[in-house]
Each structure stands twice: as C-alpha cells, then as structure tokens.
C-alpha cells in the first residue's frame, strides 16, 4: 500500500492548497477500509508542510514522492520515500521518518529506546533512528531491486522538525551516537543540512523511472541477507542438533530436494510432542537453506517466541523470522518462495485478517492456504495437542486437506525421541494419562528419572524456583493457568500483584505499550530476560520455550470429579477472554494448556494445585517409593484415530468392491498400522506397493494411503484396481494412473470405451484394457505414508 504517490511538484501544490491530508485520508480509507484518526490526520497535515519546505529549498522538481509506504513482509508504513538521481548520476531512494516530538527523555539502560509524549500519553518507544534502521534493512533485504541493481542506493534518516538540539542529551544522548552515524538525525535547526543532502542525492531528477523500479520490484529475501543469516544462525551453539533430530532434519532436507527436482508443490508435516526438537530443527533448516541462497522464511504466530529467536540470532538474521500475517496474497506471489518453515503450526488460524490489516491486504483465503500457496515447499512443525484457543485450528488433517487442494505431495515426519523432561518418556505418558488423554492410567515412579514435586504452598514453590534461577540465569520460571486478572501497570510504572493466593502475591508479565520501571521486561521478553523471574508467565508467553526447571500453579479452571473419576473444566475460574467465548470446549483447551506448561522443564517440574481434590488425584498417580517403573505398553492402536487397516490384497483379489467396503465392518479385526495425521474417515485404508512402475511418485515398497473409490471422474488419478484377464485367471491388484478413451471398433464402426492404465516410470509401457476385460477401481491414492519397506507383506503390485 502507498497512501500517496505523485511528483514532488504536484505534492508541493497539494500542500500549499491545504488538501494533502484530505487526499491521504481519502486514499487510506479507500485502501484499508478503516477510518483515519484525528491525531494521524493532524500529523499528516503538520509534517507534510515541513517536508514541502525542504523539498522546495532543495529544488527537487523532476522527482517522485511516496507517503505512507507499506514495507514488504511487515505491516509498518514508512512516512516518506523520495526518488531521483544524484548529482553524481547514481540512482537514489531517500527514506525519511518524520517525527513531531519536541521533548524526549533518553533511556540509556533500555537499548535504543526513548520516552516521549505521543498518542496522548508518555510512552517508551524506539529512537527514531532505530526505527529508520528497521525500515532501511527491510527495504534492502526484501526488495530484489536493491540486490540486483548496483547503481541504486538507499539513504535513510529521521527528521524531527519540532525538536531543538539540547546538547548531548535527549535524542542526541551518547548512547544513540553509533546509531545516528549510520542513519542521521536531523532536528529543527538542521534544515540547511538536510536540504543539502537531498540536493546532493536527488538533484538530477529522473524520479519516475527510479520510482517504478522500486514500486514493481519483486519482494523476496536477498542473497546478502540469506548469507548473513546462515552464518549467524550456525554460529549459535544452542541450535545444535543431536540424535534423532539430525535424522529428521536430513529426511526433511531430502524431501525438499525431491520436491525441487520434480517441480511440483510439496507439503511436509513434522509431528512431535513437547521437547522433540521441532523448533531447533526448523532453525537449522533455515540456516542450511539460507546458506544455499534458497528463498526461505521462518513463520510463527507467537510474538514472544519470535522475539526470543530474533534476540538469539541477532543482527540482520532476524529479518528471516516473520509472523503468519505476512504471507497474504497481495504481499507474496504464488510459489515466490522456495521454502516456508511454519513453527508452532498448531497455532494457525482460519484467517490472516485482524484488527490492523489494511483493506487491500484482507483476503477470504484461509491462512493455511496462504502459506501453502506462497512456497514451492511448505514445512509445518506441529503438536496436535497444543491448541489452546478456539481460533487456533492448525492440525495435521487440515494440512493434508490443503495439500490435496493444491495437488501437492504430502509427506509426514514423526519425531519420537524426547529431549525435554530429562528424556523421560514415562513422565510424558504420565502427564498425558493424568490429564485424560489416555484411557489407561500410569503411575509415576523413581525409575522415570524426572524431578517432579508437588508443593503445599505457592510461596515455597517460588522460593525453590527462584533459587534455581539464581544458580543459573534464565534457567527457571514460574507459570500459572490464566485464573487471575491481568492489570495494567501502576501509574508509577510498577506491576500489579494480580496472582494472589493467600499470602502469596506476584504480578503477571508486563503489558505492552505502558511506561514501566527501569529493568522490568515486557511480556514478550519474559522468557529470556533474567528480571522476569519476578513475574508469573502464562500459556501465551511460555508456549514454545523450555527451561531447566518450571514451576506451575494449576488454577481452579480444571477440576477432578471423584464420583466419575474424570477431569472437568471450570470456565467460571478462568480470566482468559478468549477461552470464555467458547465454554463448550473449555476442558479440551484447559487440558492442552496444562500439558504445555507441565512439559516446559528439562530437568524438573514443580507444581502447586489451587484445588486440593485435583491435587489428591495427581498424588494418587505417583509412587516414588517404587524403584522399578511399571511396564509402559505401546500406545493402543485405535482404528481411524491413530491407525488404519492394512489390506492384504492378495487375499481379497477376487472380492468385489462391495466386499472390500465390507471389510471395515467385519467382526474380525483387520491388521492395523500406525500412521500419523489422524483422525481419519472410515473410507481410508493402507496398501503396501510392490515394483517401481509408479516411481518417483510412489517409491518401491512404499506404504500408501487410499480412499475407497467415491465414483465420479478418475481421469489422471492414481488408483488401486482389480484387473481380470491381465495375468492368468486370477484378478491382479495394480496401482496405476487411470484414463478412459473412446476407440473406434472395426465391427460396428461405433465407439467403445478403452481403459488405459499408465505408469509414472517411463520404463513401463501402459496397459490397454478393452470393455470385455474387467477393471474394478477399489480406491483412489492419497499419499505415501512411509517410503520403502520391502518384504513386509500385504503388498500390491505396481510394477505391471
């Protein structure tokens, strides 16, 4: 979006005639569908007059100007861009951030931030040059023209036209000097200096040609950014992989390369529970692909998690990390990116439209489709049991459906090894059993080798957790269910002690946008700022993170009913406005929330229960006197939930379609095979393929998922069919692409249907079947569940 674009001559005329703010207001409301506030309108009216003065003084006539330019992969808008050729004949774009501030307090201890009066309140905001740096880097690293045109430069600065220089204080404090050396700050008395710079950079005109080069440039990560990011990410030791993570990363990379070779779309879903290393793998893949100059972005909905990752990698590498609202069709073309890595994919929502989405970027396209559409390969990292809001609809089934809609190959990868919770699978099974995910109850014992304790008071719990934090900074945190209100800070910038239980009182994480006492981290910094040990975190700040030790206060929003031996949800105890809008499904989200919170600890989890009946229930599932752990059987195979029938088509090759359909309702249980992505409709089944005639689509020996033939057109689809008269007297089950053609017969000069069963492997000729020979389609191919696996039986020919 560009709210206003015109020649500098026309712009000066619009300002002089007092109509510039009205033109901008009309354009903005037309494009965004939102009203312009009084303060923003006044800001445009005031700042454009100062802008006109310096443009006129610099005698810029054959130039272009763009106001309120929305930068790529971001919803922020740049105040002003000027386009033209410099006195040295180089092409230039000048970025100017306009500020009306007159009084500013330097905040040396808070990085490049200042405190000023804006929006009707005193606020802590970024120093103007810090803001300019972010805009500058987004322009350079995401507009292809800056990467491919060596004759095009970008100069970026801030112009605070109401601010008077007050010596080395305020905006000019020494802490900001390194920043201002890169991105100059011009204040009220610097008119001659900024005019001279504009004249030098833009004085030769020719602005329209340069404006068009930038306006219609492709948006994608630049080679320079990719190389920088790869080096930065690989240099962060905490992102190293171990054991199964390496295997999973290599498998994902293999499937990305395979999709690249075949030229089609690919959807890869990496499923794993807490602590299996999904995020670590995602970041490593990002680094590897960036190092190979692939157009790749990492997407995640969680602002705290994105903030922590960006803080960890530092520098320009953080620009490869984006929220999920940046992939709308108006911003990213179809297949523009090579790979999109979507972490915490269970947090995908139905729509990318939100309160501040401009009208021209609003779309009816579901968010999942936007992600799959924009990249050749989309990799989703997901835990299907981490949805904690009704608006979060991300699931393996949803991704599979979207892959089918876009004719993309679908490849699931399952992570099983546990690296959190001291590697204790027994503890994870116990948590899920106690929270009602599993029918069979498990007892937690010493042999599970995990430090789990229940405390009698939240004060004692916090005392132990804070002691762990003192021993090792950022290693321990306390969290709670959202059962207490979340207040704004006090007028003096301190936090309100909202979480009150008897004598225990602590604040939640700090709300955004309010003045805080120096040293208090904001909510999205809670996981990686040491001062946050004095704040209670909630599900929205803790999700995605891990600590050595986690302390969990379980509120009264989840209860235990001894009469029915079941857990129940108590919406009346919740203060979460999101969950309160969907009380009917409250228990499911409450269980997911506490599953997440109780699996954040690598070495230990310490818990306090508000509800003592619930505490007694959990205690009944613990036997720390028992030295040997109970045998933990493999998870039960439940048809169409976590497994599908594996059909032996050799045994049923003479069956009719109706008989095949009936297999799923027979009293005798079919052979089940565990598969990811459930639950499934009851018309799905598995078949093991033999031969290589369908390679590369179906590698030899692969386990394939089919849907019982729904009828309708089968043209070009891969089908499982029974063919009579092809090889001896017995019917043969084949996997082939199905076509039917009308062929002339010599006897009647009429038309007869001829069926063509073709192979994807060109080494295998097509099979032609006349109408007298029977071809019965049993199922339609949906995807490969597991590659390879020859010699496992239950096979069907696909070798012709």
Straight-line N-to-C gap = 56 Å
The major sheet is characterized as:
8 strands, mixed
The rounded Rg comes to 31 Å
Largest sheet, order of strands side by side? Answer: 34-33-32-31-35-30-29-36
- In terms of DSSP E residues, the strand content is 25-35%
Beta-strand segment tally: 36
- State the shape: flat
Helix % is 25-40%
Which blocks of ≥5 consecutive residues have pLDDT under 50?
Answer: 627-633, 651-668, 745-751, 790-794
Structure in a nutshell:
The chain is α/β, with parallel strands linked by helices and 800 residues long.
What does this structure look like?
The protein is an alpha/beta fold and 800 residues long. 28% of the residues lie in helices and 25% in strands. It is built from 21 helices and 36 strands. It has an eight-stranded mixed sheet. Strands 1-2-3-4-8-9 form a six-stranded mixed sheet, with helices on both faces. Strand 11 (296-299), helix 12 and strand 12 (321-322) form a beta-alpha-beta unit. Helix 2 (20-32) crosses helix 3 and helix 10 packs across helix 11. The relative contact order is 0.07.
Keywords summarizing the entry:
single chain; 800 residues; alpha/beta; eight-stranded mixed β-sheet; 25% strand
List the helices and strands and how they pair.
Blueprint: E1 2-7, H1 8-16, H2 20-32, H3 38-57, E2 64-70, E3 77-85, E4 91-99, E5 104-107, E6 113-118, E7 121-126, H4 128-142, H5 144-148, E8 152-160, H6 177-182, E9 185-186, H7 191-202, H8 207-215, H9 223-234, H10 244-262, E10 266-272, H11 278-291, E11 296-299, H12 303-313, E12 321-322, E13 337-342, H13 367-374, E14 375-382, H14 396-405, E15 409-415, H15 425-434, E16 444-445, E17 451-454, H16 458-471, E18 476-480, E19 499-501, E20 504-506, E21 536-537, H17 539-542, E22 547-554, E23 558-561, E24 566-569, H18 577-580, H19 586-597, E25 601-609, H20 612-619, E26 622-623, E27 643-645, H21 657-662, E28 672-674, E29 684-690, E30 703-708, E31 718-723, E32 732-744, E33 751-758, E34 767-769, E35 775-786, E36 795-797
Parallel strand pairs: 4-8, 8-9, 10-14, 10-15, 11-12, 11-13, 13-14, 16-26, 17-25, 18-21, 18-22, 22-25, 29-36
Antiparallel strand pairs: 1-2, 2-3, 3-4, 5-6, 6-7, 19-20, 23-24, 27-28, 29-30, 30-35, 31-32, 31-35, 32-33, 33-34
